[in-house]
Design brief:
129 residues, PH-domain like, five-stranded antiparallel sheet, four-stranded mixed sheet, 3 helices, globular
Length: 129
């Protein structure tokens, strides 16, 4: 049964583009708290990831069933994290107090994008407990 505790929360995110906060669809902003500010937003072909000053909101759309799963994760639940860089990609690896792990892939990265990924990782980790 121990394998369930360390099961990856999701592995569907391969963010390939940062998106402007002004271009977010209404269904994304509906999940924001009144006093919550967006730090960064990314998207895949179908999914979105919003990083605010309090939490991350991940929209996971299943293209086969047209269902949408929304993960709302408080930064305070993160117990540890790592950032991984490859030639043209990177990843943020997070472990939670519950034992679950999350991997956020960022693909098609250039040098400036890697700097922004480092900043995002530092931002997330500065808000953990």
């Amino acid at each position: 049964m121990a394998y369930i505790k360390y099961k990856e929360l999701t592995k569907y995110f391969n963010f390939d583009q940062e998106i402007s906060v002004n271009n977010l669809p209404t269904y994304v902003t509906d999940y924001l708290l009144p006093n919550e500010a967006i730090y960064k937003a990314y998207k895949t072909t179908r999914d979105k990831g919003i990083f605010t000053d309090k939490r991350m909101i991940l929209f996971d759309v299943n293209p086969l069933t047209h269902s949408k799963k929304i993960h709302i994760i408080s930064y305070e639940s993160i117990s540890s994290g790592a950032v991984l860089f490859k030639l043209t990609s990177g990843a943020i690896l997070l472990s939670f107090d519950s034992g679950y792990q999350l991997k956020l892939n960022f693909i098609h990265l250039k040098a400036l994008n890697k700097t922004e990924l480092r900043k995002l990782f530092s931002y997330i980790m500065s808000r953990t407990k």
